[in-house]
Amino acid sequence: MLYSVKELYRPETLEDALRYLAEYPDARPIAGGTDVLVSMRKKKPEDVRLVGLQNLQELRGIRRREDGVVEIGAYNTFTDLANCPIIAESVPMLRTAALAMGGPQIQNAATIGGNVCNGATSADSAPALFARDAVLVLRSAQGERRVPITEFYDGPGRVKRQSGEILVTIELPPCQADSYGDCYIKFSTRKAMDLALIGCAAACGVAKDGTIAQVGIALGVAAPTPIRAAEAEAFLKGKRLTEDMLEQVGELALATAKPRDSWRASKAYREQIIKTLARRAVRAAYEMAGGAL
Ligand SMILES: Cc1cc2nc3c(=O)[nH]c(=O)nc-3n(C[C@H](O)[C@H](O)[C@H](O)COP(=O)(O)OP(=O)(O)OC[C@H]3O[C@@H](n4cnc5c(N)ncnc54)[C@H](O)[C@@H]3O)c2cc1C
Question: How far apart are the C-alpha atoms of 160 and 274, rounded to whole Å?
Fold first, then answer.
């Protein structure tokens, strides 16, 4: 399908892109286009003004800073994430998420910034970013805004991106514990080209004595937006993990969730999956961090 739009502006610098967005607040950023182009089918193309982000070097690259923060440029494709040694080392569950999303063609085009800004509760990057307390760095002609990802989602398909803003980088603070492990599990009915029925990520920082020093548990498709399972996290903190505790983790994760019936799966089925995935992801993250049950 060919698209004819009012304008496709392709700036070479972030400054120029922000200036254009300030001038045309209705203009829509486009990265890989895997959501934008699908949504445009429902609109009159002549109404659409697009700003292409592909030439903006400020949105590229993945770095680990001296303070241990991992900075992920918004215009990294899922293939970039899957191939990056820094991701494999510091946040391996994001690599798992990258390889579980769409299929190779979609992974080659779709960006992490587009995945976040699209606002879907099924976004495969979201559980890992929520569990790791990611901070979004947004820029507009007015300046910079830093927003914890847990405060960015506003409802199904909605985020709190302000007019004229571009997501530039995503920052992941380092784990402060002696050892670290994480896990993302995407539950879907097909191995590729399928959205998650439920996604669950767990990140675990474990002290030398085996107690859980830091923990993040996050769920996708368990509510209208991705969520943190805060009660399960509070229950785990400061304890050594046991089999009995895992039962409780599943129940507490479910207590935070608000799954719904849809043509993909019933609410009751999703509830079972939430409990099972929360238990499995926490166990896997704890064991990866060197903890023994
Ligand atoms: C066949 C198919 C399969 C898919 N499978 C999956 C899947 O398994 N898992 C999954 O999570 N998603 C899936 N998706 C959805 C989609 O691929 C992802 O959400 C993707 O990450 C979007 O990234 P993009 O770069 O293509 O974004 P775009 O389509 O370019 O943009 C998406 C939204 O984000 C905004 N945006 C993009 N970049 C920025 C930025 N830097 N700053 C501000 N706003 C920005 C755009 O204006 C738009 O609103 C699938 C899509 C298709 C077509």
Answer: 27
